[in-house]
Amino acid sequence: MRSGATGEIDAEVSISGDGKHIAYVEAPAGQLWIRDLDREEARPVQGANGVYQVFWSPDNRSIGYSAGRACGIRPGCELVRIPVQGGDARLVTRLPGSFKRASWSSDGRTILYCDSTGMYTVPAAGGSATRIVDHPHMEHPSFVDLPGGRHAYLYQALDSEHPDHAIYIQVAGENRRRLIRVSTSVNPYPAYSPTGHIVYVDGRRDETAIWALPFSLEKLQATGPPFLIARRGASPAVSRAGTLVYSDVPSDRKQLLLVDRAGATVNTLGEPHEQSGPVLSPDHRRLAVAVAENDPGLWIFDLTRGSPARLTSGGKAEMAGAWSPRGDRFTYASVRNGNFDIFSKPVAGGQETLLVGTPLPEVNPAWSPDERYLLYSMRSPETGFDLLFRERHADGSLGEPAAFLKTPSLETAAQFSPDGRYVVYVSDESGRNEIYVRDFPLGSRKWQVSAQGGIAPRWRRDGKEILYIAQTRLMAVVVKAGAVPSFGNPVPLFERPTLRSVNAGGVNPSPQYDVSADGSQLVILDRPAGEPPLSIHVIHNWFAEFRNSGPE
Prior knowledge:
This protein is mostly beta strands. Helices cover 1% and strands 51% of the residues. The strands form 13 sheets. Strands 17, 18, 19, 20 and 21 form a five-stranded antiparallel β-sheet that branches.
């Protein structure tokens, strides 16, 4: 089944309790859509924009969600409910942390949700929330009705007790949690099925699959081994009527392409990989890209010879950043001690150097043209992403951090202008992501460059243009230099679904494209040729179809 949305849909799908309707979100705008399973066309829910992670009321008349597409990475969003037929969203509560999904109790009176501070219950009519568990990484909570009128909470958590996500069940009113299963998936999506099973995701990349574990609510334990439901399936949900809905696993592999300003392919670069953040060198002869599969690391692609060479190794998650102005070093973010720190390494080979390392994650490094300042994003628990900079000393060391922008809004993806006088960046200070320019280092003057939203800016190296992404379109803005710069109106160049730099509901600090100095060509990441579109799968009475699968 395909959606009726005009854009791509998020992988997560929700099904109503009666099994007759599904809800999903069109990415990246966050429009909520409803599909009645007895009809061919889906319909948008009027008034439900900027939606993040939906869940149904038990009477199937309302849908809850977190309002704001950055709610997966920032605190302070609102948990709301809206009639399925559309209208005004009604506030349930404000979230102290970033949202990690929710569910409704079977009597319709209570909502259970997780955020980055723990698990909570709140009256569905709105009011004060009660924290049940204090925990930084709990997700996918759901009510499970137990025999005798009791109920329990099913959820997943990531903590020091297990190397991967663990699935737990916890009886309401008890502090003890019971381990059900450990999954290697980055998102197991545990859900109880009235057939007497816990449905969940296990495996990664090509091994990702949906499994069913026979489970007793009386004993609160598994009664048999798990069996396979669907290979390369994700985000399963089961209705009270036993209808299973799930989505395909989107491929993480992308193809590097060299394209012209109209988006026509000029050349194919290398083979498809799980890769991100392409960055052209100052002389445009090389390309840095972060590869996440197999042995993760950074690679340098020689555009003249057509050959790649590994820059870093060691199996750590890494995020591409910026070339040094002379092109002899590459600066990047790499996971050390559980979070991203900023490093630099000679492209010709040699030891990496730690530039910025604190208990908080730092990403998206950018050098000023004279290499005097290093600008980067830091994610703090209080204000989300902020922009900081450090001055480089004569001996090459960096000074103490200074705040360029530190506000309750998110500020990310910063880049210096070619003359070093200004910084372009993303901020959601208006309520949505827009592209702004400020003078550096004071930041006292501000210009809005984008219109109707924007992320992932790139300032062309000849200074004449700023490019950015608006949903799935690449936009260009003419820049006129002077004592005070001026900016033209945004003009669309071309559209690609894979241009959107959205990750887990927020802004990916690494733009998924780069532009040549004169703007005539761009490097982008796109789907490999011939890859089929994603589909939503709906299976009525799923257990009757899969019960003979047997354990594997």
